[in-house]
Amino acid sequence: MRAIAFTKPLPIDDENALVDITLDRPKPGPRDLVVKVEAVSVNPVDFKVRRSADPAGTPRVLGFDAAGTVVETGGETQLFKVGDTVFYAGSIVRPGTDAEFHAVDERIVGRKPESLDFAGAAALPLTALTAWELLFDRIGVVPGSADDKRSLLVLGGAGGVGSIAIQLARALTGLTVIASASRPETVAFAKDLGAHHIVDHSRPLAPQVEALGLKAVDIILAFAGTAGHAAEIAALAAPEGHVGIIEGVDGFGPAEFGQLSQKAVGLQFESMFARSRFGTPAIERQHEILDRVSALVDAGAIRTTLTKTLSPINAANLREAHRLVESGRMIGKVVVAGW
Question: pTM for this structure?
Answer without folding.
Answer: 0.96
